[in-house]
Design a protein that fits this description.
Elements lengths: L4 E5 L4 H12 L4 E6 L2 H14 L5 E5 L8 H9 L7 E4 L14 H26 L5 E6 L15 H21 L4 E6 L5
Parallel strand pairs: 1-2, 1-4, 2-3, 4-5, 5-6
Amino acid sequence: MEMKTVLVTGASNGIGYHTALQLAVLHHCRIIALSRNEEKLKQLKTEIKKQKADADVLLLNFDLSSGNFEAVADFLNANSISVLDGLINNAGLLINKPFQELTENDWLAVYQVNVIAVASLVKVCIPFLEKSGNAHIVNIGSNGGVQGTQKFNGLSAYSSAKGALSILTECLAEELKSKNISVNCLALGAV
C-alpha cells in the first residue's frame, strides 16, 4: 500500500497536533505539518519520531495571515512532493470580544485565517490534490458556525467566519468533485 501524503495546518498544538501525530504514527502517512510556531512544530516531529522512528514528517513554518500561498507550492515542489492525498485545514484564529469592541482589524484577521487562507491554500494545493485520484480536504469548522446552534458572547467574528467556511466547503465540494477531490467540514464543539 502506497504511503499517503497529508498536509495539516495548525499542526503545532491541539487538534492539528494530534491529527498529525495520529496520521503519522497509526496510519503511516507522510505528514507536512504547517504552523507559524516553528518550535512547537519541532516538538511535534520529535514526538512523532519517538513513537515511529521511520515516520516521514516535513515541517513548514508558515503564517497563514502572510498571503504568500505560492510559498506552500514552492515548498512541496522543493521537497519533491507532487501528490497530496489530503489537506486538513485546521488552523484558526479566535478573537473573543464583545461585538461592539471588535475592530475592523479584528474582523479582517479572523476572516483572513479562517476563510481566506483556507480558500487560498486549497487553490494552490488543487494541482497536487487532483494527482491523487482520490484526495480529501477536511476543513475544521465550529459548531458556532452552524445555523441554529447555541452561540456565545464575544464570538461574533469567529462564529460568522466558521459559518462562511462551512458554506465555502459546500461550494468546493461541488466544484471539485469532477477532480475526484472530496471536501468536508467538521463542525466541532469546544475543544
